[in-house]
């Protein structure tokens, strides 16, 4: 019996440094995360392999934010900063199709770089200001892979 092939983790959105080929933020945007522990482990492994300091898992309802303390070169140096209700960030309802949701999240992050959201719960606003905005305002935000409609 053949085992089902497992795909390597492939993020949906990357922010890279404009001066060097360095990933400064990695985002996984999914409509559903049926196994948060697995998604978190895969994100952490990717962050370590790319030496990326900040990672996000995003669904239409929740956002999990991660930061690497660089105490080791292993996933255990990455800690969860917090879990946030992301719904206040959306200006319109998120699309119900996976690829469109990825694009939706990317566009909202691009908008935040230009006009940061003020009308947000303080915990989400603080997390965006401390972790996300510095990366997206100083870097190049792009899709991490081709998107097919």
Would you kindly provide a written description of the structure presented here, covering whatever features stand out?
This protein is an alpha+beta fold. It has one domain (13-143). It has 3 helices and 6 strands. It has helices spanning 36-50, 98-114, 122-138; strands at 13-16, 23-29, 54-58, 62-68, 78-85, 140-143. A 6-stranded mixed beta sheet has the order 5-4-3-2-1-6, with helices on both faces. The radius of gyration is 15 Å and the shape is globular. Residues 1-5 have low confidence and may be disordered.
Key features of this structure:
disordered N terminus, single chain, alpha+beta, 149 residues, 3 helices, six-stranded mixed β-sheet, 23% strand
Give the arrangement of secondary structure elements.
Elements: E1 13-16, E2 23-29, H1 36-50, E3 54-58, E4 62-68, E5 78-85, H2 98-114, H3 122-138, E6 140-143
Parallel strand pairs: 2-3
Antiparallel strand pairs: 1-2, 1-6, 3-4, 4-5
